[in-house]
Design brief:
The chain has about 25 residues and is mostly beta strands. It contains no helices and two strands. A two-stranded antiparallel ribbon has the order 1-2. Strand 1 and strand 2 form a beta hairpin. The protein is rod-shaped, with a radius of gyration of 11 Å. It starts with a strand and ends with a strand. About 0% of the residues are buried.
Length: about 25
């Protein structure tokens, strides 16, 4: 388990999503 950040680019928009991974 753990958490990490992922940057997502969609068209002209960029945002950061926090993904929490459960075991």
């Amino acid at each position: 388990g753990g958490m990490y950040m992922v940057n997502i680019t969609s068209g002209d928009k960029t945002y950061t999503e926090r993904l929490v991974i459960q075991p």
